[in-house]
Design brief:
Number of helices: 7
Shape: globular
Number of strands: 0
Structural class: mainly alpha
Radius of gyration: 16 Å
Largest sheet: none
Strand content: under 5%
Length: 189
Amino acid sequence: METLLSLLIGVGLSAACGFRVFVPLLVVSIAAKAGHLSLAPGLDWIASDAALAAFAVATVLEIAAYYVPWLDNALDSIASPAAVIAGTIITAAVVTDVSPLLRWSLAFIAGGGAAGIVQASTVLVRGASSAGTVGLANPAVATAELGGSLVTSALSLWVPVVAIALAGLLAFVVFRKLWPRVSRTHFFR
């Protein structure tokens, strides 16, 4: 049961990486440093002072960058693979009592997959926002994504099942609403 709970926490935090890459890493670092979260052997560096400082600076820079009109869309090309990597690392860090092979397999499939699905949803929303409002609504989208990352990260630590359900619902709604429009564009013909 402990392994399942840690996997749910990891997948929820990984989904939060799809909104913002560094917010969940900062949350994990703070929670582990405070003793509220156990980390897997070899990944306990996430709770170090240096990692905490690096995640804090990276979080502030990432949040600020998403409010710059042209930079937000450019960041999506970097954030997509970074979210999958961060999601994989976070899941591997919090799933503790399993073999390393199983830990990294679960981390890549479940954690990286959750981060990738949520990130793809945010890319679709930002693309639709940029196309529909010439980027004028992108700050509102950036604020919603930041809120999504904070809420999902917090819920993942307290109520992981709810966090995963909300992230899955969001991805389902976004893909259902936006995918037909995207698939009609010339990119998919």
